[in-house]
Amino acid sequence: MIENILPSGVAASELLAYPEDLAPHPAEEHLIAKSVDKRRRDFIGARHCARRALEQLGEEPVAIGKGERGMPLFPRGVVGSLTHCEGYRAAALTHKLRFRSVGIDAEPHEALPEGVLDSVSLAPERKWLAANDSALHLDRLLFCAKEATYKAWFPLTLRWLGFEDAHITFTVDENSGGGSGTFHSELLIPGQATDGGVPLTSFDGRWLIGGGLILTAIVHG
Fold it and tell me: Which UniProt keywords apply (predicted)?
């Protein structure tokens, strides 16, 4: 599914069913030695997807470490993003010479828990949600897009981006029956990147709802 919202040049892999014999890379085991079973499965599954994506890129399927704020540490010259939710794990990777960053997120297609929306959204976003009578869980879509925005932002800046620091607007692809489209994340704080590239002011991404899941992806060039 995730491949449907990624551009050419980005390698992706996903797991909808978890192989019971899936084991962590030996060099990653220490990162989850004390983790509960669910955390272990999410960690192992997402990194398994990342290694499959690395092979698609012609790279060695190496161990993937963990950096600041849990950021996955991909091989030199590779950028990417991992995601997981109940029943789903995925990775999207590309070469840094082609794109600067990638951010993906997956969420169950269901409403946000009571009381969460106000803490993860801006007033204009809540106004848009209130005016929309879609049967889709657009509140969760908004949250999913915010998560993808953060994942695209942090590796470039190594700075926190709060839910209130990006204003997201959506468009719907009418040819899809309303289940997919694009989104625009306007960044509300200075976006100087550590790579010395053009400062970040916004991201553009795609979204898809299907199979009980919401998927969002940003690939920033």
Answer: Magnesium, Metal-binding, Transferase
Q: Which residues are annotated as a binding site for CoA?
A: 39, 47, 83-84, 105, 147, 151, 161
- In angstroms, rounded to a whole number, what is the distance separating the alpha carbons of residues 56 and 69? 27
List C-alpha distances in Å: 32 to 10, 28, 141, 169.
Answer: 28, 7, 29, 37
Distance CA 115, CA 128 (A): 17
Q: Are strands 11-15 and 88-95 parallel, antiparallel or unpaired?
A: antiparallel
- Detail the residues annotated as belonging to a binding site for Mg(2+): 105-107
- Residue 189, CA distances (Å) to 112, 127, 192, 221 in order: 26, 22, 9, 20
Please give the chain's pLDDT, 221 residues, in tens: 999 999 999 999 999 988 888 999 999 999 999 999 999 999 999 999 999 999 999 999 999 999 999 999 999 999 999 999 999 999 999 999 999 999 999 999 999 999 999 999 999 999 999 999 888 999 999 999 999 999 999 999 999 999 999 999 999 998 877 799 999 999 999 999 998 888 999 999 999 999 999 999 999 98
The answer to whether 157 and 193 have CB atoms below 8 angstroms apart is yes
Q: How far apart are CA 112 and CA 118, in angstroms?
A: 10
Q: Hey, is 166 helix, strand or coil?
A: strand
Q: Which residues are annotated as a binding site?
A: 39, 47, 83-84, 105-107, 147, 151, 161
Task: State the CB neighbour count (10 A cutoff) for residue 211.
Answer: 12
